[in-house]
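@here heads up, posting the sequence + SMILES for the zinc ion run so it's all in one place. Ping me if the SMILES looks off, I pulled it from an old spreadsheet.
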Amino acid sequence: MQEIFCCMDHSDIAIDDFVNEYETFPIMETSGTSKCDYCMNVAEYVLKLPADHNIADAGNQNRSNDQGEID
Ligand SMILES: [Zn+2]
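bot reply: prediction finished. Complex structure tokens:
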């Protein structure tokens, strides 16, 4: 499961990183127990891939369809 934990200060950066890496917007849930991936604060949020997003497919498409994305 791909997840990014972030505190409120780093939520914008975390979403940016998430979109850059997975090319989709994350589901944002409250965390409260884990630590932020960017600092030592408690992570307020955890960013997760949407349930219908297939990482393997996305990775393959990114490499093979780099120039021909039509939808
Ligand atoms: Zn942080």
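MO: The chain has a mean pLDDT of 83.
MO: One more: The pocket of zinc ion is lined by residues 6-7, 9-10, 36, 38-39, 41 (CB under 6 Å).
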